Fold this protein.
Amino acid sequence: TSWNEGEDFPSLGIGHFIWYRENQEEAFVESFPLLLSFYESRNVPLPDWITRLPNHDSPWQSRAQFHAELESPRMIELRNFLNDTRAVQVQFIVQRMRESLAALLAASTRPHQVAQIFHDIANASAPTGMYALIDYVNFKGSGTSESERYKGAGWGLLQVLDNLLDTRTDGALMSQFADSARFILQRRVNNAPPERGEERWLLGWNNRIATYESTVGR
């Protein structure tokens, strides 16, 4: 359970799923309510206080309030619940990746090429390629949401694959995928509103992307 400085929402669980309060509008796709619905579809009982929330909206109105309640009974219950259901969260993350392909193809101007490179990556350096796809969709989204744009440019998997289509060589595919992801995230930082100060997160993002090339096969 965390609420990062410079953000206006908490990030929860192993996937850092974001949770908005009532009537909150942000550029980023909200993922925690989707996870709650996934729990319900798997008949996993939610903490009672969550089931009582109208529309599954976050109860915290500010970062200060969130941190003031870090050791409250409901926050402790939430952490225990998320810790005990990590396997379900993994299932949810994998499902998001599987469902992303249809959206990628629908949004792409080069659907056949995107489908091919998606499958090339999925089968590269097993299990590294599949892990990279699963992680990036959870990490930065599919890239199909029109709200997730700075200066008209997105930063999701679709943008990484599109860039890779334009730059691919005969070299190691996972290294090229990682390079493409780094390029897209650097572009996001360059395009972000200065007040967000997103450069502070770039090192951590790049460290995460480095795990995609831990096996550099083709």
